[in-house]
Design brief:
Helices cover 52% and strands 7% of the residues. It has helices spanning 2-9, 28-36, 44-53, 57-64, 66-71, 80-87, 94-103, 107-110, 113-125, 134-142, 147-156, 164-173, 194-205, and strands spanning 189-191, 209-215, 218-223. A three-stranded antiparallel beta sheet has the order 1-3-2, with helices on one face.
Length: 226
């Protein structure tokens, strides 16, 4: 491929990007070189052609033009597998992945356990506090890798909560023992950790529980009777 690459590099810059290239008759190695050297322009036509004939080269095209793709996300027909792979990309920045989350149909994330886990991990690692829908947050909580990540995600995106029903939905997604907090008249206990302390404070401030009672290694949650 060295001679092919050298030949491409000899082409004048004015002829260096093709908006609609017929790639189906090319060898996969040559397609990879064309993408790497920037000769295949970022366009829906090229994306679709590469996806049909040389997957996952269509994703390499998006990565090659990451900044431009970030501005034109909605022009490309991404499916759930595309989104999953882009969230795992080592080329796209967190900001670009966050933009992607906001532009694609959230059903492409919500219905995919692996993607939810990847997205949740990214938001947790970058201490993200940006807007999320309750539907998406619920899915991220349900598939979070561990309890600390789950509760931290809930706390970091508390502003997306609008009603008591939202709190119930999200606590149920957190599993045991947090789901017990949704039951009236109960007194569940949760581990006395910094993130659980913060959660108990939020719940008390919102009036979702009547009170909390930290004691030793546990926090007793006193739920409302009615």
């Amino acid at each position: 491929m060295e001679s092919y690459t050298a030949l491409l590099r000899s082409i004048p810059a004015s002829c260096a990007e093709w908006e609609e290239l017929e790639v189906e008759h090319l060898a996969a190695e040559k397609v990879a070189v064309l993408i790497r050297e920037g000769f295949i322009a970022l366009s829906p036509q090229n994306f679709n052609s590469l996806k049909e004939h040389f997957p996952p080269a269509h994703l390499a095209l998006l990565e090659r033009h990451a900044a431009e793709f970030d501005e034109r996300i909605t022009e490309f027909a991404l499916d759930a597998e595309d989104v999953r792979m882009l969230m795992r990309s080592e080329v796209l920045s967190f900001t670009q992945k966050r933009d992607l989350m906001g532009e694609v149909d959230e059903a492409l994330i919500v219905g995919q356990k692996d993607t939810c886990r990847q997205v949740g991990g990214l938001l947790y690692a970058h201490e993200d506090h940006g807007p999320l829908s309750v539907t998406l947050l619920e899915a991220l909580l349900r598939h979070a890798s561990n309890v600390e990540q789950r509760i931290t995600l809930l706390l970091n995106h508390w502003d997306c909560i609008k009603t008591g029903y939202d709190i119930t939905l999200l606590l149920l997604a957190c599993g045991s023992p947090y789901n017990e907090v949704t039951e009236k008249g109960k007194h569940p206990k949760i581990p006395n950790t910094p993130y659980n302390k913060a959660l108990a404070e939020k719940l008390e401030t919102e009036g979702y529980i009547s009170s909390k009672s930290p004691k030793g290694e546990e926090i007793r949650i006193n739920t409302r009777r009615i």
